[in-house]
Amino acid sequence: MHPDVKAALKDIFEEHGTVPPPWVMYPEIHPHSIGWRMGEGEHHMWVWHNWRRELPWTEEERLSYLRAFPARPAWLGHVMVFLWDVHPEDEAQDVQPYIERAEQLGFPSLAAYEADLEIKRWPLMLPRRTRVTDER
Length: 136
What we know:
The chain has two domains: 1-54; 58-122, no CATH class. Helices cover 52% and strands 0% of the residues. It is built from seven helices and no strands. The chain has helices at 3-16, 22-25, 39-54, 59-68, 76-84, 96-104, 110-118.
């Protein structure tokens, strides 16, 4: 793991107790926004993806983490990447079984995902937490 990621993880863990997903840290940024390729959003996304790749967690542990941080439907792609390292828009593999499994697990449908991606204005849907353990 890159030394910058290790340093960032240390800071994030000290502040939050875990690495909150991008939709919690920056709920106002659309999943396909340039905001994930520039500035704070980019840095957090980079750290989060590096962290998730290193996790030795089972599917159940990953589900527990995701359930602690509910995501709006437009984040289904990142939810699927976190769980199984597949994305609903990946044309190189058959993702339909993963989409169906995600829905069975209580995550948004593909139709809800696609509809939410099209919303032009992104209102804040969840309050930004300062610590993972904070109550909503």
